Every structure is written in C-alpha cells, then in structure tokens.
C-alpha cells in the first residue's frame, strides 16, 4: 500500500476537510507576535491565539500541514531513524468544538481505513490517569486493552507553565524486531526505532491555575500532530525518514556529489543524513526570509548550514555544494510550498554566499582545531581554553556548537566561561569601535545587496529571545 509523501499529505488534509475542517496553508517558520518561540516547532504553535481565545478562528475546525524546526533534536539527527531538525507536522484542531471521542475515532479511521495500517501493528499510549481515553479507545474504537500503555506526565501530559493544558494519547507503529534495539524489555516507549511514535493527540481540557491546581476548561480543545516524514517512513516500509521518496532524492544527490555509495560506511551515512536534513531546514528558513547572522534565528540558520558544510568535508567534498542540493529540496516540496519555487534564485544566492564565506576559512579552521586536539592529547588534557575556541569562532567562523561537537568526538570539552568572557570582551570592543568589522560581523553589508522585498519577514538581527526547545 505504497504512498508518496506528497500524496499522504493530501490524503490527510482532505480527510479532515471531509470531517468539516478548514484547510489552512502552513504558516511561516517565523513566529508572529510570539516572543516565547524562536522558530515554529509544532502545528499548534502558530494557532495559539485561537486556543487561548485571544483571536477568533476562521472556523472551529482547522487542519494544516505545518513546516517545523526543532533544533533541540539536532544531536539525534542522522543517528535515529525518526528525527530531523526540519519536518512537516500534519494536524487537526478543534477550538472548543469536538473533543476526545471524535479526535480519537478519526485518528483511528485515518490510520486504519485511509492509510490501511494493519491493526495488529498499532499501539496506543495514554496518560496514566486518563481513564476516559482508555474507555474511548477500548469501547468506542475497539482497541484491545493490552495494546494500550499508560504513561506518565513526561510523555503524555502537555503543559507549558500556566494556562490550557491536558493529557495526550499517542499512536505507535511496530516496525518489527529487526528495526529495534533487540533488548528483551523493548516495548512501546523504548527509545529505539522499533515502536515508532507517529501521532500525538493532545486533549486540552484543563487550565493550570496560578496555585498549580487544574480546573476543567468549559470548552476543551483538540490539538493533534502527526509527523509526515514518520508516517511516510511507515507507509513506504523504509529504514528511516531519509529514505522516504522525496527525501531520498536529496540524499541521493548528496551521495552523488560526494561520489559515495550509501550504506557502505556507517560514519559517512550519518554525515549524508545530517546534510540531507540540514539542507531542508536551511532551504525552508531562507524561503521564509531568515538570513544568516550571529543572533536569533539567523544564528540557527548559520549553525545548520555550517554544520552541514563540515559534514560535507567529512565526505571529502571540497567545494561549495549545498546551494545546488537545495534545488532538489525545492523540486520535491514546491507543490505544497510554492514560496520555494518563487524564491528559488534568492534561496540559492543566500546559501551560496554563506557557504562560500565559510569555505574560505573552514579548512584552515579544521586544521587548527586538529592541532589543538593533538596538543591537548599530548598534554593529557581534556579542556580547550576559551581563547582558542573564540579564535575559531571569530576568525574562522566556527559556531561554538560546532567546535564543541567536534571536540566531543575526542572527549574534549570547551571552557565555556572563558569563551563567554572573550565574547563579552569582543562585544565591548565592537561597541567602542563600530567601524571595525570582523569576519562574522559583516552580514549586513553582504545581504544588503539582495532585493529587500524577498527578506520582508526577516527579523533575525534584533531577536535574541527564545526557549530551550530551539
Ligand atoms: P519523539 O518522542 O519521537 O522525539 P515527540 O514526542 O517529541 O517525538 P511531539 O512533540 O509529540 O513529538 O510531536 C508530534 C509528532 O511530530 C510526533 O509524534 C512525530 O510524528 C513528529 N515529530 C516530532 N519531532 C520530530 C522530529 N524531530 N522529526 C520528525 N518528526 C518529528
Ligand atoms: Mg521529541
Ligand atoms: Mg515522544
Ligand atoms: Mg509526542
């Protein structure tokens, strides 16, 4: 029962249209009027004003496919089968309209009747105290009780500080023993890739009060999120999200440029997957008007792009290449995201500029970093001083996270206090001598040559806020 990723997206949205939902296009990756978030990380995030009642939704039932970025998952990318920094989240939402029963029944209907997933490979998790959900799953939907797992707050209760919150229920698919860790106690909830979580149904039924107590909401909401890449992985029976049709096309291109045969070297496979993921993030971020910078969203973009470039080096690629790979991203996603095609030239130009700038210094930076590693090892030390880490950042354009990551491969840490001190000192110097530019501080001049209308949503320079998620 093969389905392409683009086909699954359409099936989902039209299914929920048939259940009375209004289909809205994906919102920008840049949050609007939301200082708590650096980048949109879930389908519900741009809809928050409808959930809180701040704004009136165009309809009480809405369905979307939302582009998302979670840099919090960056270290898992390429290592697990199921995490990307970029992914698309399908969702159906109820703003005080239908609730648990419909949300649950429709999720099951879509999974088993539209996607035709075999019932004997599906599992469900619920919040341990949510007996109502247990009743619905067993009595109304007909899922055997032994396929339902009760889980604690960390996994199955959604809340952020005060305000609307509630239990959730998740759908899992058993991909079979050969995809798992093989441990005897491996079951739903195991961190390996056998039982893969693909859909989260959030039942927003409480309000968390100031004193920490929960009161019942008069009009409870529904917020669901299904990872499109994950469900496509399941539908296509492939090993990971990187082998899903539209993403495999990117992966193949990376392998072609690197002249490398996928699945022949585990470390190189990780690099291929990292590049494949990061170029998706980068392409979509630029299409939403984000430009590389040293702060906020722009820094996230820079970090992803430079991390991808470094993995390119690990594959032996010795020229700027990402700006060409983004064509494959655009080709495969442009029907759902027409802005990609509209901004193709702009996206390529931004990526190329940033890539070429880093390309000027990356080789030198890597060889200096290797020198540091040799020296530290010879001296039996395992901490790099802040001054050296700062030099890599300032002179060679190494995002500190990249330095940390490379050193970590050798069990070496960075003296972060020392690094921050250097950073402060540099900011101080910059304040007193504005005209003096350094390698990392010249963005404004370079990107000023790009047409302004293409960067309208760009708010990177001033934004420093954010939460742990991104
Ligand atoms: P996991 O436990 O696997 O990290 P999650 O519980 O953090 O996932 P949710 O916050 O519940 O994920 O998001 C809803 C859905 O979005 C998930 O069920 C999954 O299908 C998808 N999803 C979440 N994070 C990612 C990611 N990094 N890459 C791809 N899909 C993701
Ligand atoms: Mg997660
Ligand atoms: Mg989870
Ligand atoms: Mg989840």
UniProtKB/TrEMBL annotation:
Cofactor: Zn(2+)
Biological process (GO), any one: alanyl-tRNA aminoacylation
GO cellular component terms, A-Z: cytosol
EC number: 6.1.1.7
Cofactor: binding comment: Binds 1 zinc ion per subunit.
Top-level EC class as recorded in UniProt: ligase
One example GO MF annotation: aminoacyl-tRNA deacylase activity
Domain of life: Bacteria
Keyword terms: Aminoacyl-tRNA synthetase, ATP-binding, Coiled coil, Cytoplasm, Ligase, Metal-binding, Nucleotide-binding, Protein biosynthesis, RNA-binding, tRNA-binding, Zinc
Catalytic activity entry: tRNA(Ala) + L-alanine + ATP = L-alanyl-tRNA(Ala) + AMP + diphosphate
Domain Alanyl-transfer RNA synthetases family profile: 3-470
The keyword Mitochondrion is assigned to this record: no
Subcellular location: Cytoplasm
Comment block on domains: Consists of three domains; the N-terminal catalytic domain, the editing domain and the C-terminal C-Ala domain. The editing domain removes incorrectly charged amino acids, while the C-Ala domain, along with tRNA(Ala), serves as a bridge to cooperatively bring together the editing and aminoacylation centers thus stimulating deacylation of misacylated tRNAs.
Family: Belongs to the class-II aminoacyl-tRNA synthetase family.
Function comment: Catalyzes the attachment of alanine to tRNA(Ala) in a two-step reaction: alanine is first activated by ATP to form Ala-AMP and then transferred to the acceptor end of tRNA(Ala). Also edits incorrectly charged Ser-tRNA(Ala) and Gly-tRNA(Ala) via its editing domain.
Protein name: Alanine--tRNA ligase
Organism: Thermobrachium celere DSM 8682
């Amino acid at each position: 029962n093969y389905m392409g990723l683009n086909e699954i997206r359409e099936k989902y949205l039209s299914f929920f249209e048939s259940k009375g939902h209004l289909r809205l296009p994906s919102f920008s990756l840049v949050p609007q009027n939301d200082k708590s978030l650096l980048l949109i990380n879930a389908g519900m995030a741009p809809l928050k004003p409808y959930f809180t009642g701040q704004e009136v939704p165009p309809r009480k039932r809405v369905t979307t496919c939302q582009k998302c970025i979670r840099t919090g998952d960056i270290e898992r990318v390429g290592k697990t089968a199921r995490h990307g920094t970029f992914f698309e989240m399908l969702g159906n939402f109820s703003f005080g309209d239908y609730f648990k029963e419909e949300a649950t029944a429709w999720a099951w209907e879509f999974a088993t009747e539209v996607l035709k997933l075999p019932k004997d490979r599906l599992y469900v998790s619920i919040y341990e105290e949510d007996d109502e959900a247990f009743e619905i799953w067993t009595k109304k939907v007909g899922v055997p009780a032994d396929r339902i797992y009760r889980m604690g707050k960390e996994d199955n209760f959604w809340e952020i500080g005060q305000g609307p919150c509630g239990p959730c229920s998740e759908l899992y698919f058993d991909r079979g023993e050969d995809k798992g860790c093989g441990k005897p106690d491996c079951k739903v909830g195991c961190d390996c890739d056998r039982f893969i979580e693909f859909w989260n149904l959030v039942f927003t039924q409480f309000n968390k009060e100031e004193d920490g107590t929960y009161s019942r909401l008069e009009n409870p909401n529904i917020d669901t999120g299904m990872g499109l890449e994950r469900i496509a992985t399941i539908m296509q029976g492939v090993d990971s999200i990187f082998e899903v049709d539209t993403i495999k096309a990117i992966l193949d291109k990376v392998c072609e440029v690197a002249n490398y045969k996928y699945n022949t070297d585990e470390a190189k496979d990780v690099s291929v997957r990292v590049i494949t993921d990061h170029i998706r993030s980068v392409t979509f971020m630029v299409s939403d008007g984000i430009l590389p910078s040293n702060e906020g969203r722009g820094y996230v973009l820079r970090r992803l792009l430079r991390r991808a470039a470094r993995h390119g080096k690990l594959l032996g690629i010795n020229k700027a290449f990402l700006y060409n790979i983004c064509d494959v991203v655009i080709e495969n996603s442009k029907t759902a995201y027409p802005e990609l095609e509209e901004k193709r030239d702009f996206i390529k130009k931004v990526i190329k500029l940033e890539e070429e700038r880093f390309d000027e210094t990356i080789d030198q930076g890597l060889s200096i970093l290797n020198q540091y590693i040799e020296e530290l090892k010879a001296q039996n030390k395992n901490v790099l001083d802040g001054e050296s880490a700062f030099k890599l950042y300032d002179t060679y354009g190494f995002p500190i996270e990249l330095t940390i990551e490379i050193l970590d491969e050798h069990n070496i840490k960075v003296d972060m206090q020392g690094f921050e001190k250097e950073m402060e000192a540099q900011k101080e110097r910059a304040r007193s001598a504005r005209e003096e530019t350094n390698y990392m501080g010249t963005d404004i001049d370079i990107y000023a040559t790009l047409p302004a209308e293409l960067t309208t949503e760009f708010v990177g320079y001033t934004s420093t806020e954010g939460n742990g998620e991104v």
